[in-house]
Amino acid sequence: MDQILAYDPSRRFTFGTTIENRTMRLWFMSRATLLKTESFDFIKDRERLVRLFLSLAFSSPTEMGWDPTITFSHLENGRRQYQIIVDGETYTTVSILSDSAADSPLGRATRVWKVVDKDGNTRVLKDVWLDFDRQDEQEIRCAILDDVRELDKRNGSIYAEELEKRMLTILSSWRVTVDNTNKVKDDTTAIMLRDQDQPAEARPTTRGKSSLQKSTTGPRRTLLINSRNENDHRLVGNCRRYHYRVVFQECATPLYDERSLGNALSAVEDVVKALYVLHSAGWVHRDISGGNVYSYGTIGLLGDFEYARHHSDEGIHNVRTGTPFFMAAEALAHAYLF
């Protein structure tokens, strides 16, 4: 199940079964949770066994976890390429730019492709599962520019124009819809679990607890796994996520991959200016790294505003933000060190 979600971008969730002697159980894994049913004796409880197989056999591809908005296109140099829909427009992948986050089954599963549109223009497409209580990148970008424009009105400056030149340009932004007839937006709780959230007893309550937590609600008893890594203290189980895609105009080079020292220094200079404007308007990016700073010719661009937050936002979120080696030591340690 882990490998299915890691290697196949057209899978939103997946099912599995395990058999031990005469007992059997059904498993469910999405980008938000891993659940398993109570085991049952498939020799004695034949009706449940038949119902399970009939349910799997007669479910639609979407109900079985397939994404109708991603289809296989062709093989190129041995790698599968896809056609991906974003708000009614179809893009064909050329190469994968980043997919390491997809290796973690219970996570945001960020995938970034170099794509071409119907007119042959090269773009960048990002597919990600965002926490339900977070704004998407387009909403955050608009909020930042609105605040900077207010700053310009007060100070008579042109910060908004300068900042917009140093941000990746969003051409299209879409919360993925898996049912075009009913315009159903993809959601790990409302769609995949049909609004049947896990019982309270199954929800993670202790930070850092990575073992199985039991629910005792009778026949619907479930087990929730927070993390397979005992050193990973994130509460990754039982969160709610929605499916989001965004298309950027510029196919820029991350600072990690820039081979021209002159272009790299120019990019850093532009991004420092962008951050100055951002901070002046009361915003913090919170995820600056060599992967989020881009070189685009002689211009430096700042991207990935998913974690940006205004200083007045007092909301609390249990996921640490930032990239290791670039983030504040206290944020990395989840503790004040000095």
UniProtKB/TrEMBL annotation:
Residues 207-221 have a biased composition (Polar residues). InterPro entries: Kinase-like_dom_sf (IPR011009), Pkinase_fungal (IPR040976), Prot_kinase_dom (IPR000719). GO terms for molecular function: ATP binding; protein kinase activity. Pfam families: Pkinase_fungal. Residues 110-338 form the Protein kinase domain. SUPFAM superfamilies: Protein kinase-like (PK-like). PANTHER family: FUNK1 11, FUNK1 6. Residues 195-221 are annotated as: Disordered. It comes from Rhodocollybia butyracea. This is Protein kinase domain-containing protein.
